[in-house]
DNA sequence: ATACTGTTCAACACTGATGTATAAAATTGT
DNA sequence: ACAATTTTATACATCAGTGTTGAACAGTAT
């Protein structure tokens, strides 16, 4: 379609910058993947929205599948850098990691979502850089004397990651101002820290609550 | 393809049962939507996997879009019934709702996932039956004297729902035995209840922890 | 200037899906 | 027995995407 009709806007003199072109493609790709999932991603649409020719996209990424893979890899690295730092001094205090995670996810909700879909569908999750770091963090914390006894680390990890990633999606942080986004991240971090410090129930109101799960 | 080649397996004598046919289609549709998202759903594939003719699928659901809508509506109703009961006596104790939710999501992880995608992309979330019920539940609990002060109800709701739905996906409950699934649901409920009762941190180890969110 | 690389454009063969249409078979209700 | 409904089987027009190719063009580096 866009191939047969002459471009209405004259072909923008795209400064040659393969790195930027690649990033532009990856960014649009991530955005679309977050919206409709990896299976629905089309190279045509990515190229169109990124303002590059479809041929260019195929030049950088040979096939659709490779574009999907490159996008998820790229996102995972971005996320690791943003949450744990660039390798210099790792930021490991649990409350700091939580805050970083919340802020990153609010700023880039599509990245979080892409990462979530990626990790859920990966055969071997230890292949993922971010997950390895996060898991190490959690295990270390749970084993430390700063944590309560009997925490289920895996449930804990899944709970924190899934809610941190989906909270901004729920709040539609994409269409918010920077100030609103800041407040969203803070709301999340605040409530999570409150929960982690105090819990939810007033224990005295649940004297009979056996710890075994209930369901009808 | 399957339309031009004669079927190798003889056409199964499909007992006429429009209700079951409809449900069979919806079930497959939900499964596929959970895997690849609504945008990637194809009527052809659904019909094939459901073992019905493509024409039949179009007979029950006029267009692809309508199939998507019907599927999400159907899932939302199923979920409401499973978690809150069929309208008779509503099951409202928070720990029971949590247990029901965990068990439902572990048994039918695809339904939870479909519902999650649906609710996240809905303009007006109050249109959704399950969400209305759940929100009412949460608001009532947070306002009660059984709950701590200062709980952020919205963060709480998103946290519980997102983790309950994604926990079975993470654990790949689909490929587990009934016993394993039971244990998965119990693990989740147990840790959540533990968290809700005690929190995560030993407070005495964090005397300096200001409540304001931290990030670097 | 020349060679190289990134980028654009247009065309092509192919696949697979949508939505429509029509006829026929099978099952059920009356 | 008859009518209505459900299901199958085909066919067809249409559209959108994939992956490939070849030629041209535009900056960049040597």
List keywords for this structure.
homodimer; about 220 residues; mainly alpha; 9 helices
Write the layout of secondary structure elements.
2 copies of one chain form a homodimer.
Chain A: H1 18-36, H2 43-50, H3 54-60, H4 64-84, H5 94-107, H6 109-121, H7 129-143, H8 153-171, H9 178-198
Helix pairs in contact in A: 1-2, 1-4, 1-6, 2-3, 4-5, 4-6, 5-6, 5-8, 5-9, 6-8, 7-8
Chain A binds a DNA duplex (30 and 30 nucleotides) through residues 1, 3-4, 7, 11, 13-18, 21, 42-45, 52-56, 58-60, 62-64.
Model description:
2 copies of one chain form a homodimer. By secondary structure, chain A is an all-alpha fold. Helix content of chain A is 63%, strand content 0%. Chain A is built from 9 helices and no strands. Chain A has helices at residues 18-36, 43-50, 54-60, 64-84, 94-107, 109-121, 129-143, 153-171, 178-198. The N and C termini of chain A lie far apart (57 Å). The model of chain A is unreliable at 1-14 (pLDDT under 50). Chains A and B meet through helix 5, helix 8 and helix 9 of A and helix 5, helix 8 and helix 9 of B. Chain A binds a DNA duplex (30 and 30 nucleotides) through residues 1, 3-4, 7, 11, 13-18, 21, 42-45, 52-56, 58-60, 62-64.
């Amino acid at each position: 379609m866009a191939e047969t009709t002459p471009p209405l806007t004259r072909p923008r003199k795209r400064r040659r910058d393969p790195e930027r072109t690649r990033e532009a493609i990856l960014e649009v790709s991530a955005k679309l993947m977050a919206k409709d999932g990896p299976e629905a991603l089309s190279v045509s649409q990515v190229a169109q929205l990124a303002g590059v020719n479809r041929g260019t996209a195929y030049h950088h990424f040979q096939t659709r599948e490779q574009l999907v893979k490159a996008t998820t890899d790229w996102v995972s690295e971005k996320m690791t850098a943003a949450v744990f730092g660039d390798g210099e001094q790792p930021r490991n205090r649990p409350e700091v990691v939580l805050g970083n995670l919340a802020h990153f996810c609010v700023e880039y909700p599509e990245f979080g979502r892409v990462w979530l879909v990626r990790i859920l569908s990966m055969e071997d999750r230890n292949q993922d850089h971010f997950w390895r770091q996060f898991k190490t963090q959690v295990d270390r914390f749970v084993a430390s004397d700063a944590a309560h006894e009997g925490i289920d680390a895996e449930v804990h990890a899944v709970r924190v990651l899934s809610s941190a990633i989906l909270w901004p999606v729920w709040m539609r942080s994409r269409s918010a101002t920077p100030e609103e986004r800041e407040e969203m991240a803070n709301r999340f971090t605040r409530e999570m820290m409150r929960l982690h410090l105090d819990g939810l129930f007033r224990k005295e109101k649940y004297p009979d609550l056996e710890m075994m799960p209930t369901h009808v």
